[in-house]
Each structure stands twice: as C-alpha cells, then as structure tokens.
Amino acid sequence: MARPAEEAVIAQKGYAVPEALVSTEWVAQHLEDPSVRVVESDEDVLLYDMGHIPGAVKIDWHTDLQDPVVRDYIDPQRFAALASSRGISRDTTVVFYGDKNNWWACYAFWAFKLFGHPDCRIMDGGRKKWEAEGRPMTRDVPSYAPASYPVPRREDAPIRAFRQDVEAHVRAGRPLVDVRSPQEYRGELLHMPDYPQEGALRGGHIPGARNVPWVMAIQEDGTFKPADALRAIYQEQAGLSPQDDIVAYCRIGERSAHTWFVLTYLLGYPRVRNYDGSWTEWGNLVRAPIER
Amino acid sequence: MSTVTPGEGCTAHRPPVAGKLDPETRLQVVTDHYQNPRHFGALPEATVVLPGGNPGCGDVVVIYLRAEGERLVDVKYEGQGCTVSQAAASLLLEHLHATGLDPDAVLAMDYRFMEELLGNDLVRARPRCATLALGTLKSAIQAWRRKLRAGTHQG
C-alpha cells in the first residue's frame, strides 16, 4: 500500500532500522488499516482537541503514561488497559506522531518499549509536516472497540537508567549525553529569576556528560537528518561510538527519549538507556557531583 | 486594606469562567484566547516587568504591571508556548481587568481558581502550564509591593 517514492526517501537516509520510521504519505495510505493505530502525543495538551489525523487516538505523557502518585510509569495492568482502550492489541502497528518535532511521540514510543510492544513507528516530520502538506485534520474523536491486550512484563533495564546506574556510569567514566540546551548544560540562569532552574536546586550537568542538544537531529521540515549527518554529530563530534554503553538525559527524560530513538533506531547503537530521572532528580540530589 | 478574605478571592467577583462550560464551548473559548490573546503586549512605562517560565519546555510569560502609587492601573503580558500556558494568561488578565485590577484578589487566588477559569482536567493535565501566568503575576505584584515599601522607607 505504501507509495514506493515516499518510503524510498526514508530508505535512502541510510538508517539502521528504517522501518522504525514511516512517512506522512504512508500514514495517509493506512488511515483505514485496522492493523495500524495512529497515536498523537503532544506537549501541548489541547492540540489533539483542536485537530488531529483522522482516526488518530491521543495518549498523553503526563496523564496516561505516568503513575499519578509515584514518580514512575504506569504498571503493566494499567498499560494493558490503556492499550485496550485505544483499540491497540499486541500485534497492532502503533505509529506515533506529535508536536515539537516528535519529541513527545518518541517519549511515548520509548514508554511503549518499556512494555515490549513489538511494532512501534514514528511518523517522520510529525504533526508539523502533516499540517504543512495540507493533509486532512479532524476534531472527531474516534471510538474503537476495546482490544484484547495481555498484561505485559515491564522491562526497564535495557532502555531505562536509574540514579544508581548513572552514579556507577559516572564512576566508570562511561559516556553520558546531555541533550538539553547549551545554557541548561552550563547551568546558566535563563533570565527567569522567579522560576526554579529547570525545577532543580542546582544548575549544571552530570560530570563527564557531552552536550548534544536533541534538536540537532532534526531538519527544517521536522524530519530526521539522514544517517550520515547524524553520524557526523553523534559519532565524530560528540565521540559516541556504537559499541559504547550510553546514558542520555535531559530535564525529565522527554527530550532524551528523542535522542534515545535517534541513537537506537536511526544509528543502530545497541546499548543506549534513557535516564528519566534526569536533571530534576540529579540537580536536587544532596551531594551529587555536578559540573558547570 | 484588603477587602478579600482568604478563600473568598474566587467567589467575591464572579468571573466569566470557561471551566464550567461544556467541553466543546470551553475548547472554543480557550482556543480563542490562545489565538486572540487579550491584554497582550509590552507596557513601555511598566513599574514592574517580570518574566516567568520554563525555557526548557518553551513556555514563557512576561508580566508588565503599571501602578500609580498604591493603585494598579494596567497589567499586560507577552509570551509564547503551549495553548494552555498562553490561554491561561489571557483568561487571567481578562478576569483581572473585568474585576477592577485588585492586587489582593490576585494574591488570594490559587490553582483552584485556575481550575474555575480553565477547567479541572486542563489544570490537572498541565499544572505548571496552567499556573505559570498566575505565579508570575503574583510575583510581579509582590515585587511591586517591595518596591513600594522600599520607596516609603527611603522617603
């Protein structure tokens, strides 16, 4: 069903796992496909209500994916219920898209991978590209029959780093990538005197972390840069090599999920973990080492 | 000097609240405030200019407050960011102007007031965005009052 020309564009970008991305055209061709569920995940909580891809459901990083009390993700029972309520079964192809160059879409993708959902994709270019191409948007909220979704196992270890992991990582001198802005990385106040610095008591970065702002991976039209350009940034400039054990972090783990996606699926790095505690945890930890 | 007792701030002046509207109308009102913000812009002769926000996420609000002595005469804002953070600022300033620019009423407002203005679900879904303008406005009023006290002491 895919138009070869559109998918060829992605294929030519030289990614390690090209099928992790689909084009806007591919999505347009699969709007009626019952084996595909399109999921919008945004920072802006009202965008979906104002208009979304026909048939797309909404999953909110804050209210749907996070535990309402403990700082953690939902448990497997709740994940199964969430998927079921969106008409997603274990063999559904889930295509994520969203605002801010798919920043939150990648976060939702990462959260789905904590529960081992097999077939997850990102729509290259996100909401911005879909809108720019003048493709249809609707305010109709679709309703799908609840799908059967077995309660999965949540496996954090392969893709999620905790504070203790990061402490060990720092001691061992293994690579960390801080994907926030250079100002946040350097611990400079951003002229917001009455606002806590990134929700943390201290500014700066985890010792040894290299700074590669997440948005470096994106082109003007919202799509990901080709693999060659990404390798130049992450491998040649930042010195992150494919055999490294890498931890990515930002403020709460959202922007770093985007970089995790880039390193894991577009460049094929097998050992990348997202530290979702990120700066809001590290910058508040008593006696945690910090560099500026 | 305040005529507002604690907890009364939300009910003393009944504002045009969006939070109680049906979801479709509420969405229209909030979207309209986002697209056509009220009291938007800089105040060249502001007594206090106070930026607030989360640069990491991209939601920023700057409050401009102009006072004559102990009277508040104008409040405007500039900002950029998500629909909730910007519409909340516009709705809040519209309410403030409609109810007579009472600084003590603002200081008595809390997130429950923002729930009335925007709706419980929006405030709970994005508490930081929904309360950004209110927090910044309160800080601006407190900064103005500090300035006023400092001026009195000097004088």
TrEMBL record, chain A:
Tagged with keyword Transferase: yes
UniProt superkingdom: Bacteria
Domain Rhodanese: 32-139, 176-291
Keyword tags: Repeat, Transferase
InterPro entries: Rhodanese-like_dom (IPR001763), Rhodanese-like_dom_sf (IPR036873), Thiosulfate_sulfurtransferase (IPR051126), Thiosulphate_STrfase_CS (IPR001307)
Signal peptide residues on this chain, from the entry's feature table: none
Cited SMART domains: RHOD (SM00450)
Catalytic activity: thiosulfate + hydrogen cyanide = thiocyanate + sulfite + 2 H(+)
Keyword presence, Repeat: yes
Molecular function terms from GO: transferase activity
Gene3D superfamilies the UniProt entry points to: Rhodanese-like domain
Classification via SUPFAM superfamilies: Rhodanese/Cell cycle control phosphatase
Name this polypeptide is given: Sulfurtransferase
UniProt source species: Carboxydichorda subterranea
UniProtKB/TrEMBL annotation, chain B:
Listed CDD domains: IscU_like (cd06664)
Domain NIF system FeS cluster assembly NifU N-terminal: 28-147
Pfam family, one: NifU_N
InterPro entries per record: NIF_FeS_clus_asmbl_NifU_N
Name of the molecule in the record: Iron-sulfur cluster assembly scaffold protein
